[in-house]
Write a structure and sequence with these properties.
5-stranded parallel beta sheet, 55% helix, Rossmann fold, single chain, Helicase, Ruva Protein, domain 3, 3-stranded mixed beta sheet, alpha/beta, 9% strand
């Protein structure tokens, strides 16, 4: 007899065996019991969560020889044929390869006929989002006026690609990934039925690696049993999955604690060079950070290399690393994404805590930037050139001829009265290119004093030459 994989052998055969879809199962089960089943459903969610499996279970519920029930027997001829995929009134259509209008037209023609063997004809359209626009339009008419005893189930991994006109005529169920505990319990049931020895740590590794996919978990378990020589242990499962050795994880976490970013970047580089799966490694690090946070917050004690003072740092790190994991899924070189995430930690010191904001208010970013700028050498000539490009040549010329003084409070620009108003009008532009506050002052008073001084000297010389005296003095 040919070997049957765990994914096929332990595919749920009734609602009770479905893993992690309690809401979907309960709603559909009640709909069958209350005779309130809709004529069309959309099952949306990532792969391996049970969309097609539940569609088959519904087909059993409606066509079991024992009558319509939410608990089909699984032994009658109809149930057995549905399980094998050979039931004449169950049509499984792969929309990825049968996506055209002609395929939907043949489906529409078939709908008008009565069921061949069962009570209901069930149409399961897998990857429904792959249908063409014309095919969707052709299907729309059937969904608007569905013939009796016909049920349509559209399964998709990309709900947003299903047209609103179709979605409005169907009931939609969102399939969400089960928890790691639920997946581990599912794997245990398989191993106990198969009488295979296992280690809890190995199942934990598989639950992490499958990323919520129940079918993927069963497939990985199958491989783990073969690779482990008939049993599932931690060491062989680590090798199979390419899980990074524990000492490397610990080294990474220690350098994370010390904020030794150069060493963190090197670790990622070395793992990539040695052929390890960086996504698996990143998931392990996120798991370690999460465990440390939970331990520190709930138990208020040190967790591994981290202590209570690291809580804020770990929260921000966890957020940055999670975003990196999402970005890496759509990027060919994951190493670059993960190394960049590490480098982002360097700028964490610039973050302001919520407590500080509540206490001191929102910081003045412009002021901070200016303060930082004054620490460096300020080139006035370059600033004038930039101001000239934005405010015009006259402003730049006036600044070049001006006297500019700096003190602790800021810069004072001393200019002739004729251009003072012009510069004041452009003060907002000028201020952008100076690292401290700027004010404009007129040179009018000082200029008049110079003129008066020159005039008094001339008068003195005339009086001395002609031995005269001043009779009267008239101010301008």
């Amino acid at each position: 007899m040919a070997y049957e994989s765990f994914a096929r052998k332990y595919r749920p055969k009734n609602f009770e065996e479905v893993v992690g879809q309690e809401t979907v199962v309960r709603t559909l089960s009640n709909a069958i019991k209350l005779d309130r089943l809709s004529h069309a459903y959309i099952f949306a969610g990532s792969r391996g969560l049970g969309k097609t499996t539940i569609a088959r279970i519904i087909t059993k519920c409606l066509n079991c020889e024992n009558g319509i029930t939410d608990k089909p027997c699984g032994r009658c001829e109809n149930c057995v044929e549905i399980e094998k995929g050979s039931f004449p009134d169950m049509y499984e259509i792969d929309a990825a390869s049968n996506r055209g209008i002609d395929d939907i037209r043949s489906l529409k023609e078939n709908v008008s006929y009565s069921p061949i063997k069962g009570r209901y004809k069930v149409y399961i359209i897998d990857e429904a989002h792959m249908l063409t626009r014309e095919a969707f339009n052709a299907l729309l008419k059937t969904l608007e006026e569905p013939p009796p005893n016909n049920l349509f189930i559209l399964a998709t991994t990309e709900l947003h690609k299903i047209p609103d006109t179709i979605r409005s005529r169907c009931q939609t169920f969102i399939f969400r990934p089960p928890s790691k505990t639920q997946i581990k319990d599912y794997l245990k049931r398989i191993l106990e039925k198969e009488k295979i020895n296992y280690e809890e740590e190995a199942l934990e590794l598989i639950a992490n690696a499958c990323e919520g996919g129940v079918r993927d978990a069963a497939s990985i378990l199958d491989q783990a049993v073969i690779y482990g020589g008939g049993e599932v242990n931690k060491e062989s499962t680590q090798e199979l999955l390419g899980v990074i050795p524990e000492e490397i994880q610990k080294d990474f976490m220690k350098n994370l604690k010390d904020k030794n970013l150069k060493e963190l970047v090197k670790i990622i580089e070395n793992l990539d060079r040695e052929g390890y799966d960086l996504t698996v490694f990143w998931n392990q690090i996120l798991e370690s950070i999460h465990s440390s946070l939970l331990s520190l917050i709930t138990e208020e004690k040190e967790s591994g290399v981290f202590s209570e003072e690291d809580v804020e740092f770990l929260i921000y790190t966890n957020d940055i690393f999670k975003k990196a994991l999402i970005e890496a899924r759509a990027f060919h070189d994951k190493k670059d994404i993960f190394q960049l995430a590490v480098l982002k930690l360097r700028f964490m010191k610039n973050l302001v805590s919520l407590e500080e904001i509540l206490k001191n208010g929102i910081p003045d970013i412009k002021k901070e930037k200016k303060t930082e700028h004054t620490e460096e050498s300020f080139d006035i000539q370059k600033a004038v050139l930039k101001i000239g490009k934005e405010a015009g040549g006259i402003v730049a010329g006036a600044l070049k001829n001006a006297s500019i003084k700096e003190d602790e409070e800021g810069f004072t620009i001393l200019v002739d009265k004729t251009v003072a108003d012009l510069l004041k009008d452009k003060l907002d532009i000028i201020g952008k290119y100076f690292p401290k506050p700027v004010k404009i002052e007129e040179l009018e008073i000082k200029t008049e004093r110079k003129k008066q001084k020159k005039r008094d000297e001339s008068v003195d010389k005339v009086l001395e030459l002609f031995q005269g005296k001043i009779i009267s003095y008239k101010e301008e």
